[in-house]
Amino acid sequence: MSCLGILDVSAGVEAQTKTVWRQANRFNLPRLLFLNKMDKRNADIDGSLTSIRNDLGTTPLLIQHNLGTGSSFTGIVDLPSMTCQKWNRAATSQEFTTTPLTNSVDSALFDKCLTLRNNLIDNLAELDPIMMDVVINSVSYDDITSDCINKCLRRVTCDNKAVPVLIGSSLKSRCIQPLLDAVVDYLPNPESSNSKFAFDDKLCAFAFKTVHQKERGAVTFLRLYNGAISTSMTVYNSADETTDRIGKIYMILADQMLEIKQASAGSIVAVTGLAKTVTGDTLVTNAKAAEKYSAADVQLPTLSVPEPVFMCSIETYSSKEQRALEEALKILVREDPSLRIKLDPETQQMVLMGMGELHLDIVKDRLLKEHKLEVYLGKMLVAYRETIERPSNIIHHTLNKTIGDTTHHVSVAVSVEPCESQSKTAHFVCSGEQSWDKLKWYHRKPIDQGTSQALLMGPLLGYPVVGCRVNVHNFTLHSSRTSAAMISAAIREAVHQALQDSVVILSEPEMRLQIYCDEDNLSDILYDLTHRRAVIGNVEHTEDGVIVHGVSPVATLLGYSTKLRKLSSGRAHFMMEIAGYISMSEQQTKNIVSELSNW
Question: pTM score > 0.85 for this model?
Fold first, then answer.
């Protein structure tokens, strides 16, 4: 995989650029940079290169020189080949001419570009030993061919030693063709990938985005890592172990979708017809291929979807629109994996859960704009978790029920105890008289399902239970016809009783903060954080300002973005991500339970 970064040449690196760049660093992606909007009057290539070098901490390699600036921008000089590429002055013309740049054509421009080309070669020689040997063995830099420079640019780009920088104006369709050529010339070829998933000719595709269109319905965007797809092809979803069928395949060109019959490895396409596939799923040829990928320990890029930390009730102003709201929310949840919907079992209210106030406000706005539904969002609440402080006693539970002429009879004995894991996934172990070997393999799944279901709703406020392990001390079937559903029900009821026998407290989500501000606002921001029960990790002083690192309970961060703008006059910004859950005291738990019991 690789990526292309697009910057405004008049602004250089901006705040969001750093966020995207850190994401690219996380996956170690080779990348190119494109300085866009060269037709602007205040275009500043040198300033942009400086901000790339200082703010992104990488080495920019400018491989093009501009022919004019602002409204007079007509093309570029390709430094490796020393050729001029000029575009027609028509507003959106994509036609251009290529001519060699010589000293006789424009001596001043030739000297300037020759100097830039020599600097480019010097920078490449410092980064690449092969280019260093070429420079040492060459009489002059003029003897070094464009092919040699381009191969070296490809090596340093694929090794993430530097980033080639190109220029142009996408609005006027100028210099887009050289940019596409650079993607082919400098970025890795998908077919030559040595990744684990690139074996045989079997399909391996990743669904990284899902959108809903009125004309086409659900449209799933796929990245094809291996194999090929075609229209009406049946695929296997390895995430939920179901089959799905591809309808039509579209190639994406800006805002246009061109229908094609098939697509191969390395392509990014949009497909229709996938009724069961959601964002983050992996598609393969069939179930056997899924087993093969699993056995080979295939590692595909996954979507890191954090657990929701805020929740609120959502209602329509008219009961007639309730059904439409449910259908609209299903569409939004399919598009956004971080958005969750649940039905409160006591109040029968629909509860919307997400990553923050802005996230849920956007959902409300989309419901109005895209689905013509005006909804009411209730009070914003924190999505707590429940955990236990001490082990419970062993709880014995027997289920004996006759349905029709079938008797379901099962006895279980379970207990719960704290464990270090904060996962919602049920952890059950066999202990005491019940050994793992005595437990038949076809009974393990319903037992695990029962424990999982029991831990989804805690006894205090119905929040998921974390940091809890279920011990199965005894499992006895008195009737061989007892169904798996009844086994799960017996385990679920026993675990509920064990949780009530223990001491249950709440855990609140804690957010990891990074605040970017000026030195002048630092004291006010730190003072405000201390009043929010935040723990300051360190304060990092940089050339561009100050970065404050810390953690804070999410309950104290409601409305923090507005407060931060006021404290810094709009100059500061922050990022936060969930750091984990911290246990609250029994008194804090009682206060929260009392506050939310009437909600």
Answer: no
